[in-house]
Amino acid sequence: MVIDVDKCTGCGACSVACMSENNVGVLEDETEKIRSITWLRVYQIDNGKAFPETEVAFFPRPCMHCQGGASGSPGQAFFQEDTDPQEAHTPCVSVCPAIATDYDDATGIVSQITSRCIGCRYCVAACPYHARYFNWYDVPWPQGTPRGLSPFVSPRMRGVVEKCTFCYPRLQRAKNKAFLGGGKVGEMDYQTACTEACPSGAITFGQLQNPAHKVHKLIQSEFAFRLLEKMGTNPKVYYMSKRKWVRMMADNHLSQAKATQAAASGGHK
Amino acid sequence: MDWDRRTFVKFAVGAVLGVHASPLIPKFMDDTAIWTQNWNWVPVPEDGAVAYAKTVNPHTGTGAMAKLIDGRVEGLRAIRVEGNPDHPLSRGGVVPADASALQLLYNNETRVAKPLLRNRATGVMTQITWPQALDLVGGNLAELAQKGQAHQAAALGTDPSSTTGQMLMRLMQALGSPNVAFTPTPRETMALAGLFMTGQPFLGFDLANANFIVSFGTPLLEGFGAPVAVRKAFAGWRGYPKNQAYLVQIEPRASVTASQADQWIACKPGSEGAVALAMCRIMIEEGVYDRAVESAYGWNDVDGMMGFKSYLMKSIDRAKVASLAGVSLPKLVKMTLAFAKADRAVAVCGPGNSGDPGRLYDFMSVLALNALKGNLGKPGGVVAQQPLPLKSLGGALPEPKQPPLAGSDRPFSVNNVHDLAEAALAGKPYGLKTLILCGGNFVFNGPQANLMHDLARKTPFVVAITPYMDESAAMADLVLPSTHWLEGWGDSTTSFGSPVACYGLHRPLVKAVAEAKDAGDTLLALAQRLGGPAAAALPYKNLAEALAKRSQAMGDFKKLAETSYWAQKRPAYGQMRFNTPSGRLELFSRTLRQLVSKGAGGGQDLDKAVRALGVKGGAQAAFLPHWEEPAAYAEGAAYPLIMQAAPSLRTTWGDEAITPYMVKILPDTVLANADKLVVEMNPATARDLHLYAGDMVLVESSAGSLTAKLTLYAGAAPGMVFVPLGLGHQAFGFQVAKKGMNFNRAVKVTSDPMSGMPIWELTGVSVKKVRG
Amino acid sequence: MATHQQGKKQRSRADWLLLVVGLILGSAFGFWITPTILYAEKPQPLQFNHKLHMEQVDNGCKSCHKFREDGSFSGIPGIKSCKNCHSGDEPLGNTPAEKEFMKFLKADKPIPWQVYARQADNVFFSHAAHAENAGLECTRCHGKHGESDKLRPYEYNRLTGYSRDIWGRGPIGLAGPPDRMKMDDCAKCHRDNGVNQACFVCHK
Question: Using one digit for the tens of pLDDT, what is the confidence trace for C60-102?
Fold first, then answer.
């Protein structure tokens, strides 16, 4: 997945489309962000400058579907299968005691099997992107609203962890169609809900290694980068921006002075 | 062999081993494990055949597709709202309000299922039947008509161009009431500006094809026209390694549009129009304007009155405007030259950040700037929309005898809900006895919510036709359930600013909740109940039939309903037709002058008449695009700060309420600590007021107030406070209600000079720290 | 000491038989009680003769249990599918079950079938992958259900609520499909055939 930060207007259509696709519930109080489940959260950052030089940018953050492996430029490390388990690990998968999450080599998707999850939240702590959410409560579906739930994603109960699955059920259904028609799952047959919903086309989705797919070309761009790249998590989500300050902030390139300033300004993150 | 302790132990051990050898224990353990994963209180959505149905969300203008599931047991239901990739304007994109529409559709706790009668004294609602309900309203209206008091019944609607809006107008007119008013929108202001200068009421901006865009204080990316269509254009402007178009945003706050723009020119609030005029003057002085504009009527002086050029030369000094607007002059000049040089440049006006209809003279100034650029009728410029080929619902009806409550003192009037409420509450020239609220949730949406609240409270008989148990329904004496747009018929017309005409039709896709009826059907039933002229004015079986008749020219109705939209193929490029009295572009509007002088003579009288309409510049400026200081500047020392809204597609769109998912994705700079609205202020301003981040503050205007938590944002202009829109509902269930406060309860609505449209872009306020 | 020795009885080896008897009885008890207390029966709303219907249709199971165009599987047909053949007001045959069925048909009411093979909600099972892509026969997992002339009682697990067919009828529950349709069986077959075993292949 490639997200163009310069095209993102922070409207939240991706986030809402994601929630309606994946049967995410709404609690009475959603301002307690640490307990609020949004598989794809849109973060706002600003350049920390005073009026009238201030600028904001938005970072839609789905699960990064980390492959792990040595850090490096997208051209190299990503495409090499790193077989050393010490080197190549997905932060959340490696800590799960219940094997409720795995990394699928065939698709590059990190799964989350909620019914298998024992709710220890080790993965939540391990994820450097805060992409994993724990169900602290059962969802209070208002009367009548379950009628609008999708049968393709199983609703969860309290006490388990959930996260973005790159709309895996959509691939399941696309495969079904391909099996019946004898064809293959093409690039446009499997698109995530957020990609479809984005009104400014900021999200592009496809197979990173497939040269025929748009994302393959996009990640070669000099403007493409990933979040916290130096940690070696090898995420599958790339971002693009022409703005240098945006790219700097994405990998904790904060200077000491800036870091202090950001901490002092509080809320606006 | 004796039966003793030892033998018993042997037997027991054997039995225990035997039980272990049976599946009893492993099976129970296995099932217990499965049981722990068996969450029988979690809903299990039923699978079924998937189908997609195209429709258009009338509130956002988005071409949508409902994803439907036909379950074996539960039947047909909608599970998602997605974008319709075939829709020419929205091309598959959606905004949060579209994507979360089902939360309003399927929430039994907020939908009205049956007609409800409220006891005003106790507030208790009782269910009644439809015939009873229609008898109540019909009886009330018939009685008023009989007594010759039909004008004391008023109806408020959201969109006069929709078929339901047209029905509402015809019903009231046939009844003999001139009082039908609608939500004020920038479409009306644009229509006036367009009519006065070009004779074309439907002007749009060809954003998708422009490569230099200057937006004058209008939130292009937070709420402008059809939000998805604008975003599609925006997507085309961006690119790697270089952007395809240069976007300049002129406004006081580092908003989303300002940040995503290539250049943000931070200006003082309300000075955007002055900046547009300064750009005009710079273009003239630098000689970089389209010479064709010189042949426009009013370029030079006319009839002894000042022409546009003279006005610019006399009143718009570039340096003065730059200092008044607080912008850097060299930057402004550089940007203006780039604008003049660009091959497809457009200047854009529109709704303000607070969602008001915009100021007429600002719109005219921006149109003048476009004329100087010479982009009228050009690709990437200002183009005239083709009028929608819609038929009228019937012949002309006799004009009601009484003058309307609102706007009768103006040379031209746009009947809007605010003016009507103000006049009715003042009893000038008369009060109201019956009020029909047809959608719109006016008690919440206002524009000045306090005023609409008072109107609903003081009018003896209030009827709300609404899908939801909203704030307006809670105050109504009679609540008539109407359908959600996914379960009923309805239509929507071209959105503001669109370069092409676009008609949207939505049809029932899922079964309507309980006894909900299309609002149009309710009006038709009411007309039938009233009989006589009302029934004759609306001779339709149902709304669908009326829609079919109205859209006849768009082809087969069934097909149209399935396609869900009709759109003009491409913008009308080429020489713009000027339907003005002079037959030319009019920088000095003769139309306007004629309208105003109809009531007044020439000379002194004209000046007086113009000043009575709120134009401070007097007759010399009144017919020209010009700039006037916003009323909020003159609020005095008691209200030293200026309040403006910080719009966002996450909080609201149009008259639909915020949905639970939208509440969920609000950042803590909008809603915090469960229920606290958060307002923004520049750190320097806060320091001056001895306020700190996290303080609870009271934001008070002369019309109302709100309390909120303060956050400091460097991107907020000093001397201002920015308030999120669309929060503070008292209705819509536990996920939405009692969160934040309603911006519309603090705004002060003023009257736009000349147009008389209610405007509330800026409100003078004071901000004080309070405990809490 | 002596007294003690005196008190010691001569124990016969037959004592140990008791252990075996206990073992057999305990085991029998376990085998008997397990299904008895775990499973309850629910009647089907109607009787249905698969055999009879199979004789009438051309395309075997797929005549009614169809694939939809998007590759999804329709499962148990709705009342609309029934109407394709049962179109008239009169029953086609003369069984009591059909008379009962006509009531549903006339009221256009869905028949609340109990589904023997219903998996948990979090399971995604692709019929297309198995029946079309891998070419498995329906009987591989569903057994001879299609040849039955009446519906057997639907049994469900009191603890979990799932159908007994999932865990299997066999006493120990080690048999694979068609007797049993547990995740282990899915995984085994996937493993044996070298099919992807990632969680998301079968979970949603």
Answer: 898 999 999 888 999 899 888 888 888 877 888 888 888 889 8
Q: How many domains does chain A have?
A: 1
Residues B223 and B352 placed together within one structural domain of the fold:
yes
Identify whether B101 is part of a domain: no
The answer, yes or no, to whether residue B511 has pLDDT greater than 80, is yes
Tell me: do B734 and B755 sit in the same domain.
Answer: yes
Range of the domain at A33: 2-263
Write down the pLDDT at residue A86: 47
How far apart CA B755 and CA B666 sit, in angstroms, is: 36
> Which residue would you say has higher pLDDT here, B605 or B216?
B216
What single letter denotes the amino acid at residue A215? V
More confident residue, B279 or C95: B279
Tokens of B379: 């690709």
Within the 715-734 window of chain B, which residues sit less than 8 Å (CB to CB) from chain A?
A: 715-718, 733-734
87-106 in chain C: CB under 8 A from chain B: none
Q: What is the pLDDT of residues A47-84, one digit of tens each?
A: 989 999 999 999 999 999 998 874 444 444 444 444 44
Contact assessment for residue B298 and residue B586, using Cβ atoms and an 8 Å cutoff: yes
Do B715 and B260 touch, CB atoms closer than 8 A?
A: no
Range of the domain at B651: 631-770
User: How many domains are contained in chain B?
Assistant: 4
Q: Is residue A268 part of a domain?
A: no
pLDDT at position B766 over 60 = yes
Q: How many C-beta neighbours within 10 Å does residue B421 have?
A: 30
Give dist(CA B29, CA B7) in Å, integer. Answer: 30
CB A199 to CB B82 under 8 A?
no
Q: Is residue B70 part of a domain?
A: no
CB within 8 Å of chain C, chain B residues 8-37: 10-25, 27-28, 31-32, 34-35, 37
Rg of chain C over Cα atoms, rounded to whole angstroms, equals 25
Which residues in chain B are contacts of A29 at CB distance < 8 A? 674-675
Range with the largest mean pLDDT of A80-89, B209-218, C117-126: B209-218
Query: In this structure, are B213 and B165 located in the same domain?
Result: no
Q: Which residues in B lie closer than 8 A to residue C12 (C-beta atoms)? A: 1
Task: Return the structure tokens found at A65.
Answer: 């579907």
C45 vs B contacts (CB less than 8 Å): none
- Statement to judge: residues B312 and B243 lie in one domain: yes
Backbone dihedral region of B458: left (phi > 0), alpha (psi from -120 to 50 degrees) or beta? Answer: alpha
The CATH number for A135's domain is 3.30.70.20
Is residue B194 in a domain?
A: no
**Token pair for residue B39?**
């969450």
ipTM of the shown complex:
0.92
Query: Is A149 part of the contact surface with chain C (CB cutoff 8 Å)?
Result: no
- Tens-digit pLDDT profile for residues B319-369: 999 999 999 999 999 999 999 999 999 999 999 999 899 999 999 999 999
Please compute the mean of the pLDDT values over residues B222-248 and round it to a whole number.
93
DSSP string, B621-633: HHTS------GGG
Whether the CB of A121 is below 8 Å from some CB of chain C: the reply is no
The verdict on residue B78 lying in a domain is no
Tell me the C-alpha distance between B158 and B447, whole Å: 12
Angle at B316 between CA B314 and CA B318, to 5 degrees: 125
Q: Is B81 on the interface with A (CB under 8 A)?
A: yes
Do B252 and B359 belong together in one domain?
A: yes
